[in-house]
Automatic annotation (TrEMBL), chains A, B:
It comes from Esox lucius (Northern pike). The gene is P4HTM. This is Transmembrane prolyl 4-hydroxylase. Residues 295-445 form the Fe2OG dioxygenase domain. Gene3D superfamilies: EF-hand (1.10.238.10), q2cbj1_9rhob like domain (2.60.120.620). It is a single-pass type II membrane protein. The keyword Transmembrane helix applies. It holds the Pfam family 2OG-FeII_Oxy_3. The chain crosses the membrane at residues 43-67. Residues 480-489 have a biased composition (Polar residues). Its cofactor is L-ascorbate. Homodimer. Catalyzes the post-translational formation of 4-hydroxyproline in hypoxia-inducible factor (HIF) alpha proteins. Hydroxylates HIF1A at 'Pro-402' and 'Pro-564'. May function as a cellular oxygen sensor and, under normoxic conditions, may target HIF through the hydroxylation for proteasomal degradation via the von Hippel-Lindau ubiquitination complex.
Length: 489, 489
């Protein structure tokens, strides 16, 4: 047995009582290994091993608690389990929170700024859409409108967009291939609505079924007069017949997909305090990492004059394997004609109360099904916000200071952005009296997590280089990405 | 300076080289405090303090990581924020996970048992409804059916339920008050569907609009023959006129709300391994704490013979302030006529593939709106599963071994059970050929968190007392709560 001992007896340093003892240094000289008393190196080793085992146990216990019992885990585990069950084994650090809609009409209180709570009402679940009255003060609305006016607004859509022929050449498709692409229901014939859908997306010209019938007559495109185009009839036409016809005839602004003027306001460092406050509020509202919000498009301010409108559209396109996002194209390192703006969330602010008209319409909100073709039926075109806003499932009246926001994409079930939410289709009803001022904040996130991560890394590397001038307006899209964000994913 | 030293020099025990040194015991004798060499008590204290500070740092770091960076937190924080914004300041330890539906048709892999993954398909979002093929093996289906047959099945519904007159007396309502309760749309008249809805819920008798017209004629209840009852006409009838009429005329089982036989199978300790396995699988599927699953109703096995049906109903009722749950009534310590079974989740197993008919119908799944009155329109009664299953929004065909499950309640937005999900309305279509065997697993959770917590505490106190015999069948409801669960919330 080892006796309790006071080996300090043999110590030369006869110490006076010390209240704050100095940390003893480790023995620097070799100690004969044979010694195994309480003060030997072996003893020290044993104590060290003991404590390290203890520490490892504590850590292990904490990890056990962390992964088994905590409320956070209760919520997180579904994603993890789902992920472990799926093919892709790669682990992510970030899980994007998504607000809960609960049910239409549900009201939840949200804290967006110190000392004030807002009420957020669920307007629909498909898309997941909320309304927050009083998101902006009267004063803030005024400032944003004035800043936009100072900066100057441009036409949101020029008559006939350019670059379209290039795209057609780039794709190099035969008439037959184009016909097949247009023939959505694959019945071997082109219905009016199939041509219309195509024309609206590609040409930005809003043809009504009546317009199209006139064009058919003008071009003698439909000799049998049944309102359908067969492959033979389509071949005879040539792929740019419609465009040429329309350019000759001229297009009024009310015949365009959108009829408004807009500008972009940079919200980063050095911008007006109101704009920075707004960005902060949006970050709190969406509960997304601020890096994601910081790296998104600037604020878009839009003015609809009397008679202005924006026919129903998606703010961001569907995700195919080839799709790249505008904001991460640099990091994507790929060339593809499928590019979309990847706007995960739209936050829309009403900067004034419109005298009459100008509602935001969601034609298919909470519909049981979504079928693109059935949007135009029996000559009723649900996407036409000049004619059929009253037939939309949901209309939001513009009230000064109110914000609405919705998700343009679903969740992928694993905490990231998934498929496009087709139900997010929306438009601006025609302003029948007065003017309508709104602003859009889009949160851009690449549905490809890796690409988003790579993009944010690239931006953080570039930081400090081109941070001064990030808000040069583009012709059509938003200005080039702001590069002053210092945070990473 | 403290010299490195080998104080073992003064040791009486001249040790031979030891490969496995024994753990030195602490000095048991008092050591003069003046000594401060490397082997003194001070030295030991310093090492201890150093290590404890180290350990505390590690723990603090882990907690920091836990509450700031982990994915669990990103998901959990919205609930917490929402809660902090709401009036009720009380903090809960538990956040019930809720599966994500994403969109109709979405398929996710789930791991329910070792070495196997199942595919779970989203069937609807309102209610949140999933289908999992192959949840049970052929053998397991056979065992469950046999166990139910061994135990013996009873009629699911007797002709005219008792206790109803007591309830009417207990409430002590005047004719006028009853009239007002029945007059759902408050137009001062009772439409056919208002009487029907009432009769079905309270009497369990499934009258069709034609039946009711016959009764009106038989009772001379509607002298003006307009199919509506005014307050005067209703007063003349007396509150139990319908019941008396029906009892005289007699009711066939096909005219009842449900036409089936069922039994209850206890799933706790000592029960058949298949039943215990099933419970485990349900726990993994729903991702709920096992204590909640353990304390829920036993498995209900139901047999529908040829011609059997169950008209559309909710498995659990709405939540009013006065509502108490059957399973927590003891803990609720309140007496109220509003009692419901608080079945948060229904897991329905198909134990055989039905030859013809017997689908599970969800008449209003993913409907844009839910209005009780509009369920019966133009003589088409969507809740009638003998007549109108084909008009249901969704029908699930019974396939042996498949499980479907859905939430009967929404989330409250703060991680607990919220309002009833009215869209969870469902029924069993009439079995036109063959027999249909199904089993139901219900997870009972009180929407009042405090009451559920109190109930679980009570059960854990009772543990060991009445754990043997928990599966005595009731006449109508499930057997009294099982008390063998050892876990708390």
């Amino acid at each position: 047995m080892i006796e309790p001992q006071d080996c300090g007896d043999g110590d030369e340093h006869e110490a006076t009582p010390q209240t704050v003892p100095t940390l003893p240094s480790m023995p620097r000289e070799r100690v004969p290994l044979q010694k195994s008393s309480v003060c030997s190196r072996s003893y020290f080793m044993v104590v060290m091993v003991f404590f390290h085992v203890y520490i490892i146990n504590v850590i292990a216990l904490l990890f056990y608690v962390h992964y088994n019992n905590t409320p956070g885990d209760v919520l997180a585990s579904p994603s993890r389990e789902a992920q472990s069950g799926s093919e892709s084994g790669f682990q992510r650090d970030i899980y994007l929170p998504r607000l809960e809609g609960i049910r239409v009409g549900h009201v939840q209180k949200v804290s967006l700024m110190p000392g004030k709570t807002h009420e957020m009402r669920t307007l629909s679940l498909k898309p997941l859409l909320f309304e927050i009255p009083g998101f902006l003060s009267e004063e803030e609305c005024r400032v944003v409108v004035q800043l936009a006016q100072l900066k100057g607004l441009m036409e949101s859509q020029v008559m006939v967009p350019e670059g379209q022929e290039e795209l057609t050449e780039q794709l190099n498709l035969s008439s037959e291939e184009i016909f097949n692409l247009l023939d959505l229901n694959q019945d071997g014939q082109l219905q009016l609505q199939e041509i219309l859908t195509h024309s609206r997306v590609l040409d930005g010209i809003w043809l009504t079924p009546e317009n199209l019938r006139e064009i058919y007559v003008g071009l003698k495109a439909d000799p049998d007069g049944n309102g359908l185009l067969s492959l033979e009839e389509f071949r005879l036409l040539g792929s740019d017949a419609f465009q040429r016809f329309l350019q000759q005839r001229g297009v009024k602004s009310s015949q365009l997909v959108r009829n408004s003027r807009h500008t972009w306001l940079y919200q980063g460092q050095g911008s007006h305090q109101v704009l920075q406050d707004l960005k902060k509020r949006v970050t709190r509202l969406t509960r997304l990492p601020s890096a994601l919000v910081d790296l998104s498009e600037p604020l878009q301010v839009v003015r609809y004059g009397q008679g202005g409108h924006y026919h129903a559209h998606h703010d961001s396109g569907p995700v195919y394997p080839e799709t790249v996002c505008t904001h991460t194209r640099l990091a994507a390192n790929a060339s593809t004609p499928f590019e979309t703006s990847c706007r995960y969330i739209t936050v829309l602010f009403y900067l004034n109360s419109v005298e009459e008209g100008g509602e935001t319409a969601f034609p298919v909100a909470d519909n049981r099904t979504y079928e693109e073709v059935s949007l135009i039926q029996n000559n009723v075109d649900l996407m036409d916000t000049r004619k059929n806003c009253d037939k939309s499932n949901l209309r939001v009246k513009p009230v000064k200071g109110t914000a609405v926001f919705w998700y343009n994409y679903l969740s992928d079930g694993q905490g990231w952005v998934g498929e496009q939410d087709e139900y997010s289709l929306h438009g601006g009803c025609v302003v029948t009296r007065g003017t309508k001022w709104v602003a859009n904040n889009w949160i851009n996130i690449d549905p490809d997590y890796q690409r988003q991560a790579r993009y944010q890394q690239l931006v953080s590397l570039q930081e400090g280089e081109g941070a001064e001038d990030g808000d040069e307006p583009d012709e059509d899209g938003p200005p080039s990405q702001v590069t002053d964000a210092h945070q990473e994913l």
